[in-house]
């Protein structure tokens, strides 16, 4: 069973989460460092971050959400280290974020899926919403999932 740790900005685990994101987004995908770290990582008290560790205790997956509006949690910065993709770590992070958002009173979640990850999010109940757009040179599909009442 994969254990997901949830925490907020200022928690020491932020450094580990950002380490995974830098490896995936900056090193692998060549997203500029200046685009990767934002206010939701620095000083958003409502942002919820998540990590999953491997058996040795190393963080191998991460994600976060913040309030897009009163009803919608915006999920993002989902990243899994190369060697752990396909193990369920990403699904565990996504499920934990969705469950926590629901627990906090949000009725839906939205995200911008990289084109190669659309199927991953569709399996979790997200549906395409609107046209694709380019972000840092990567095609993204806006997606949304309404939580069951």
Description:
- The protein is α+β, with helices and mostly antiparallel strands and 149 residues long.
- The protein has a domain at 4-107: Aminopeptidase, CATH 3.40.630.
- It contains 5 helices and 8 strands; from the N terminus they run E-H-H-H-E-E-E-H-E-H-E-E-E.
- Strands 1, 2, 3, 4, 5, 6, 7 and 8 form an 8-stranded mixed sheet that branches.
- Strand 3 (59-67) and strand 4 (72-80) form a beta hairpin.
- The radius of gyration is 14 Å and the shape is globular.
Terminal Cα separation, in Å? 26 Å
Category by helix and strand content: alpha+beta
Level of helix content? 25-40%
Helix count from the secondary structure assignment: 5
Summarize the structure.
The protein has 149 residues and is of the alpha+beta class.
Q: Which tags fit this structure?
A:
149 residues; alpha+beta; Aminopeptidase; 8-stranded mixed sheet; 8 strands; 30% helix; 33% strand; globular
What is the secondary structure topology, with strand pairs?
Blueprint: E1 4-7, H1 13-28, H2 33-36, H3 39-42, E2 48-53, E3 59-67, E4 72-80, H4 89-103, E5 108-114, H5 118-123, E6 127-128, E7 133-135, E8 138-146
Parallel strand pairs: 4-5
Antiparallel strand pairs: 1-2, 2-3, 3-4, 5-8, 6-8, 7-8
């Amino acid at each position: 069973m994969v254990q997901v740790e949830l925490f907020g900005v200022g928690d020491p685990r932020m450094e580990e989460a950002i380490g995974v994101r830098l490896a995936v987004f900056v090193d692998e995908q060549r997203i500029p460092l200046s685009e990767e770290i934002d206010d939701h990582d620095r000083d958003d008290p409502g942002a919820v971050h998540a990590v999953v560790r491997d058996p040795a205790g190393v963080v191998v997956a991460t994600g976060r959400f913040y309030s897009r509006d009163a009803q919608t949690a915006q999920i993002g910065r989902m990243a899994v280290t190369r060697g752990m993709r396909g193990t369920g770590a990403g699904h565990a992070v996504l499920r934990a974020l969705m469950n926590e958002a629901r627990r906090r009173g949000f009725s839906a979640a939205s995200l911008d899926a990289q084109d190669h990850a659309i199927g991953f999010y569709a399996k979790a109940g997200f549906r395409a919403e609107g046209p694709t757009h380019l972000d840092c040179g990567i095609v993204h599909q806006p997606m949304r999932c309404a939580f069951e009442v």
